[in-house]
Specification:
The chain is mainly alpha-helical. It has 2 domains: about 5-85, no CATH class; about 150-235, no CATH class. It has helices at about 5-15, 25-40, 50-60, 70-85, 100-115, 135-145, 150-155, 160-170, 215-235; strands at about 195-200, 205-210. The protein has a two-stranded antiparallel ribbon. Bound molecules: zinc ion (ZN).
Length: about 240
């Protein structure tokens, strides 16, 4: 509150409790200076529920004693505490590799919540997950499309050839072979085709994943994709 707001608060308090009115000019100036010194960092009101006049009113509703600056500061501190207790830090929209920007955004959001400028962000477990997503963060997620950054995905290609081949096929609009079960090697949906190594006694010694799916599986996936398209067309028409 600036001096003008403090003066308005004292005028309001004077209406509630004439005992607090200072008629002597010097005393009135001292009272204003004292309150301003102690309440300079307390806002008059915030968009989300804090109102210094309401705090003064509440004091006189429940207490016969003259109001002190502490009677406004205490409710303000508990207002801040309550809001921070409700707040769970949302994921910043800043680049996670930019530590300074990331931290600054977290701290800035907390300050805004505590000061009553922003509403607390509640844990996603108890609210709708879509509603609270920061639009800038959503744009970043859409761009990447995965929790693995593009550069790291590229570096991983040699170590997961089946996965890379699947992603490449989907990117080119080809049927996704892994969306169906392989009739040849019986690899289930989502798992790459496999090659069996047969040992000398006819027993299976090892199963190694193949980078490319068996041709029959590709055909099956293509057929399935066609069927799905045909199924969808009448629904659209
Ligand atoms: Zn197979």
């Amino acid at each position: 509150m600036d001096r003008r707001e403090i003066a308005a608060l004292l005028a309001y308090i004077g209406r509630l409790d004439p005992r607090s009115i200072r008629t002597d000019e010097g005393e009135a100036r001292d009272q204003l200076a004292q309150w301003h010194e102690l309440l300079g960092d307390v806002p008059m009101a915030t968009p989300h529920g804090w109102d210094a006049l309401a705090a003064a009113r509440q004091h006189y509703r429940t207490s016969p004693y003259q109001i002190q600056p502490a009677d406004v500061v205490r409710p303000w501190e508990s207002y801040r505490r309550n809001r921070l207790a409700l707040h769970s830090d949302p994921t910043p929209s800043a680049d996670p590799d930019d530590q300074a920007a990331w931290t600054a955004e977290l701290v800035g959001t907390r300050r805004a919540v505590a000061a009553g400028i922003a509403q607390p962000t509640q844990a996603r477990a108890i609210t709708s997950s879509q509603e609270g997503v920061n639009p800038r963060l959503q744009a970043r997620l859409d761009q990447i499309g995965s929790c693995i950054p593009p550069a790291a995905r590229a570096a991983l290609i040699p170590f997961r050839p089946a996965r890379a081949a699947r992603e490449a096929a989907v990117a080119q609009g080809l049927p996704d072979a892994l969306s169906v079960r392989c009739e040849w090697c019986l690899a289930p949906v989502g798992e790459p085709c496999r090659r069996r190594r047969i040992g000398p006694n006819d027993g299976v010694r090892a199963i190694t994943p193949r980078a490319t799916p068996h041709p029959g599986r590709l055909d099956l996936a293509a057929q399935q994709a066609q069927h799905t398209e045909q199924d969808q067309q009448p629904a659209l028409a």
